[in-house]
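Action item from last meeting closed. Structure (160 res):
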């Protein structure tokens, strides 16, 4: 297990922090545990908006995660400027949230689109499934699953 000073600190960011970003964070942690490297990372999620702060992840996101054997818990929170110093990497689900972080003053070198990590990605952004049905959540799961696998590979290669 890495000591706290050597942790790679990653925050997944979407709009409300109840669908995409907590799902991505949960998938990433699950994959890290499967590889026995969860101790190398500090992982959280946050939203650019605060209207869902304190709420659990969306039930549809939790059901989708559970269907894939991925534990999901936590409560929504809004990103704050202090997170820009605290985290090594801020992974946004879409351009709108990426631009929001940059406008808040996030260092551009720390802000990336999650799907930019995945050479297999067929789109640029993780679509927001909030106003859709279960198929949208499954699509989000598939996108973040592949991207988190590639991200984990990338971050572990940097640690070596």
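Sequence:
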């Amino acid at each position: 297990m890495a000591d706290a000073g050597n942790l790679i600190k990653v925050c997944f960011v979407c709009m409300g922090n109840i669908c995409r970003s907590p799902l991505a964070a949960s998938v990433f942690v699950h994959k890290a545990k499967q590889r026995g490297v969860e101790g190398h990372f500090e992982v959280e999620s946050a939203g650019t908006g605060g209207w869902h702060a304190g709420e659990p992840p969306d039930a549809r996101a939790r059901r989708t995660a559970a269907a894939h054997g991925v534990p999901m818990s936590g409560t929504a929170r809004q990103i704050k400027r202090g997170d820009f110093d605290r985290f090594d990497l801020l992974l946004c689900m879409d351009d709108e949230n990426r631009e929001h972080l940059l406008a808040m003053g996030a260092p551009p070198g720390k802000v990336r689109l999650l799907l930019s990590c995945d050479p297999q990605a067929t789109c640029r952004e993780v679509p927001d499934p909030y106003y859709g049905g279960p198929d949208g959540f499954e699509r989000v799961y598939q996108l973040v699953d592949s991207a988190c696998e590639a991200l984990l590979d990338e971050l572990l290669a940097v640690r070596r």
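Note appended to the action item: The chain has one domain: 4-159.
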